[in-house]
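Minutes, project check-in

Agenda point 3 was the complex the collaborators sent over. CS summarized: two entities, 639 residues total, and the question is how they sit relative to each other. Sequences were read into the notes so everyone works from the same version.
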Amino acid sequence: MSDLETTLILIVALFALLASGIWIGLSLIGVAVIAMWMFTTRPAGDAMATTIFGAASSWTLTALPLFIWMGEILFRTRLSEDMFRGLAPWMTRLPGRLVHTNIIGCTIFAAISGSSAATCATIGKMTIPELKKRGYPDEIALGSLAGSGTLGLLIPPSIIMIVYGVAAEVSIARLFIAGVLPGILLAVLFMGYVIGWSMLNRDRIPPSDIVMSLREKIWASRQLIPVILLIGLVLGSIYAGIATATESAALGVIGALILSWAQGSMNWRTFANSVMGATRTSCMIALILAGSAFLSLAMGFTGLPRHLAEWIAELGLSPGALILALTLFFMLLGCFIDGISMVVLTIAILLPVVQQAGFDLIWFGIFIVLVVEMAQITPPVGFNLFVLQGMTGRSILYVARVTLPFFIMMAVAVTLVWLFPEIATWLPSQMSNAAG
Amino acid sequence: MPASLFSGGRMRAFLQRLYLGCGVLAGISLIVLCGFVIYSVLPGVGLWLQDLFCGKTGFMGGAACFGNVFNYVPQSADDFAGYAMLASSFLALAHTFGRGEHVRVTILIQRLHGRARRWAELWCLTAGTMLSGFLAWYCVKLMLDSRAFGDMSTGLIAIPLWIPQIFMGIGACVLFIAMLEQLIVVAAGGSLPEEKASLHMER
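CS then shared the predicted structure for the full assembly.
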């Protein structure tokens, strides 16, 4: 059997299993078994069990359930209300006023949350009713929320960066730090768009209803102290080199528990719910990762990724063209599968391509997270869109349409990170200690 | 009624308790995991505190001096944290499946209705049962092999590998049972599996 035939068989099998609705983790195991049977005489089952055991008990990966748990605890606190009250007084002078609480709120919350849907839901739970009550137009309020919710993936901690880091064997601490500047850049772009839109639609932004002296504003900002302390605990401990990503996650869990307890929102029920919610979400991701670990092993035997890399090298694409092609490919893939599955499939199959093209793996991680973020707000499978659809009752197409300008801002951010890779790579190069 | 297959549904009630019980054990494993990680990070935090209060660069400038309050070596805490995560992930498999939280591509399947949908679900569940059965078989085999060969973990505190692997075996077997149960239910004309994946929080 020629290379081309076997490659085709594997790709058809992968798409058939995935598209027919078989659970993604199990589909990956299925394709890996087929690949092992076709290409090696090694017993597939034993290789699978050993590989999955190694992957599912890796120390690096333990950051993932811990950050998910931290998010589950914070989602059940009054943190988002406090943040709104602390931020709102400062936004009254900016064109767009309280719309900016969406963007800055998401940016800050993203620094303690690892997921984009959770960021979107936690901030939106507070800002959507507040903005509606004051008469802000839905299109800018929802669009900015869906857009800036995706910062949850880019600004550390980030579930998807942990997945990428483990799969591509890159330091998660460095990836986290690399995401900081691109995240801030994206937030600034979003705010710029909101300011521009508001200048053009002056009459549609309601007048400010907050009259406060500077003193009162500063006093109101005390509400932000807990969240800033948490950010300091999680990111500070990584940047200072005291803790690995995993250890900072455990510190974050403790911090979140203390915060929740101090606010009085912690009781046995919310604690148990946060544990079980985190357990199920982690388990869902673990099954995908188990499948992808085995698929990566099987792909190594098939040599398919290497052939793909050689084939793409022969095409003689410039790095820019390759990045453009990859972006479009991810956009397409994002129409069918979720971000985590996208990342693990990419690493299993495309890593040699990326290495051959000479991309820095930290930089590529930031790139892929940005593109996954874009996929996160494109229909039909856009999880932020689902969240907002559930919260507002608007149709998913409406939410997607008002999010489009923010999608374009993200495309601008991808272009900037491509033109000036230092946006992603400079900060990690300054880290004091290369904690794993 | 599919329930009649299992003597008045008592079998199914037992299975539900089994999935939930394993799920709760998985939750406890998550807490244990956090405990191990905290145990492993404390010496580092102690060192930082010591620096802060005693070191020249610290803001106290050596005013209050004490040693590392967490002065110990966290032996093999990283191994044990990994094993706790392994146990948590596997034990929760069936519970997560029962709540419809394992992701899958539903873009095609959700367009089907009635009989066509039922056949599609039957295909998914058949494939799922076979794949999870394959997984369960080899997870149990791995555990038995480790036991037979006396494989030990490589950390400072070496433990027999079959101890963490037994949770892997149990979790995979319970997932297989849950898949098989759902397959039988759908094949006998019962309700289709729950679908909640689109409402998932952490993505």
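Noted in discussion: Chain B touches chain A through 67 residues (CB under 8 Å).
Follow-up: revisit at the next meeting once the mutant set is ready.
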